[in-house]
Every structure is written in structure tokens, then in C-alpha cells.
Specification:
By secondary structure, the chain is α+β, with helices and mostly antiparallel strands. The chain is 35% helix and 32% strand. Helix 2 runs parallel beside helix 3.
Length: 106
């Protein structure tokens, strides 16, 4: 795993910890910019961390994703994975447990 991939894992873990969320995510676009998010669970709005990180990248003008990281002790949601693959069909998604261990590369 490259240092840049390690960086997005660290950013995803930080996003999760900062707000004590169940999930944190980070994505890196084709220019090297990163976007981070934590899961949102409001009465009227629910977004996974991965979906929100991709939405932030897309709304900032990213055309392609190079990689994504998700910190979660549960399986990734289908919508979040689909969103990553919309902008990065070949982008690896590093699924990391809350303790920092790599659960898998999707």
C-alpha cells in the first residue's frame, strides 16, 4: 500500500473519531485532493460516510477517484460502493476496522 493510500486511511479514521461516528471515509481524486466524511444519521437524513465523501468530491468538481478508504466495523453499504465506482471504476476501496486493521480491499 502506498503512502498516499495510508494517508486516506488515516484521514478516514480521524473523521470517524472526531465526531464519534460509526463510519469514517476518505477518497482521493485524480489530482491528489482528498475529501473526508463521517456517517450522518439525522431523523430526516441518513448518509453513509463513503457516499458523503464521494458526494463531496463530485460537488467539488472531481472527475475521477483514484482510491477510497472506509473505516467501519460493518460491511460497506451498496450505495457507497456504487458511488465510488461511478467516479473510479478501478479505484480500490480499503475497508478498515476501527482498530486500524485492514479488513479487505474491495
Amino acid at each position: 500500500m502506498s503512502p498516499e493510500d495510508q494517508k486516506i486511511i488515516t484521514l478516514a479514521r480521524s473523521s470517524r473519531a472526531r465526531v464519534a461516528s460509526s463510519e469514517g471515509a476518505a477518497v482521493r481524486d485524480e489530482t491528489g485532493r482528498t475529501y473526508t466524511a463521517a456517517a450522518v444519521a439525522l431523523p430526516s437524513l441518513r448518509l453513509s460516510a463513503l457516499s458523503l465523501a464521494v458526494a463531496m468530491a463530485a460537488s467539488s468538481g472531481a472527475d475521477k477517484l483514484e482510491a477510497a478508504a472506509l473505516v467501519s466495523d460493518t460491511e460497506p453499504d451498496e450505495e457507497g460502493m456504487a458511488a465510488v465506482h461511478d467516479l473510479g471504476p478501478e479505484a480500490p476501496v480499503y475497508h478498515v476496522a476501527s482498530d486500524g486493521t485492514l479488513r479487505g480491499t474491495l
